[in-house]
TrkH family potassium uptake protein (Protaetiibacter larvae), 474 residues
Amino acid sequence: MRTTPVHRDPVVVRALDRVADFATSTPARFAVAVFASLIAVFTLLFSLPIATTTGEQAPFVDALFTAVSVICVTGLSTVDMATYWSPFGHVLVFVGVEIGGIGVLTVASILGLVISRKLGLRQKLIAAGDANPLRIRRGPVSEGQAVRLGETGNLLATVAVSVIVIELAVAALIFPRMLLEGVPPLSAAWESIYYSAMAFTNTGFVPTTEGLAPYASDWWFLGALMIGVFFGAIGFPVIYVLRKNLRHPHRWSLHVKVTLITFVLLLVGGTVAYLVLEWGNTATMAGMSLGDRILHSLFISSMARSGGFSTLDMGQLDGSSQLVTDMLMFIGGGSASTAGGIKVTTLAVLFLAAFAEARGSDDMEAYGRRIPPDVLRLAVSVVLWGATVVASASILLLLLTDEPLDHVLFDVISAFATCGLSTGFTMNASDPAQYVLAATMFFGRIGTVTLAAALAASVRRQLFRRPEERPIVG
């Protein structure tokens, strides 16, 4: 049987080749362009009359802010998400957070893997760059990475499977609890899937006006949400390694060990801090039993890392607790995860560098491995860029509003870290202030390293080294 060859339009072929060349030559700029394009598409969709419950066109600022918050899996909103958007609008929210949480380029790579059943070198480089900032520059890349280039296909398969399995598992845990609460079966099915997606993607949107109020003291329901948030926040490379070597910790990579240890330490430390600082706060935990206090402290500590769900009014927290939340949000979750922030491995590398300096050691070491200096330079860059974005946005908002610094800083860090917790400032802010917060969400989600690489020129070779001179530091 003879087959007729398929002839593609030369114009289309040239256009696709140019896009592919742009993607591989400047992956950081390609990622920014794709993210911006996707936000533009969702802004247009949220602007359709069918997307609102009233049938009227949403104001541009609300459509744009919602699109950015959805694609950046932030969870902040300028409208009541449960009542403002129609079923079509909620479907947009659901689809958008799934795409944004997994990563635009990762989704495209997964689709390519499903269609062609294989990944070429170009597709592997794009997918690897989306998962690891150390790969976003041109030129040779050391293969001493958490996930090697040859494992990219298996990592993509892990991403696709883990999203489906974990979200369905969390929904299965939540569904019977919602039935016991009296929620109709069809509504319970949709809401359980919605909650599980928002937990795994670390977004924090809720589908009902009462939110988590009916489950505020429910260990089962809140525990299921914390499980979803945890697996979404530790990162797909960690899930990939755990799937292969769960019972063999000695085979875990340095990235996995550092991520899990730092993650757990911050979770426990945050829980203890909230329990102590909010113990006597009459607006939050003062009237609760010990069990409820522990539950709420653990829940806030988990959600402050990027989860976005809340059972307490963040605006009523003690000032010291708000500062703790600021720090936890700024740190965020694991690398290549659905969480935001500077990432826990960044914090760990900075502390390892400080310990090495205190010991007088030339090398950073952990678990029998040496961490090269370029990782430290990247960690410092991430923190400085992140602090710059937060400081710049806070100054602009203080000029545009009359809100106190603690509330402005809280919501700015929440936007940058794509966390979604709010003191109420975002909902009541003016249009210019909401545009500033939308830009902060965008910069926070695409990653400070990606942004820096996109703005900078390509890596250039320098065939000489200038004379050395040491400035005074410290």
Observations:
- The radius of gyration is 23 Å.
- The chain has a mean pLDDT of 83.
- The chain is about 65% helix and 0% strand.
- The CA atoms of residues 15 and 21 lie 10 Å apart.
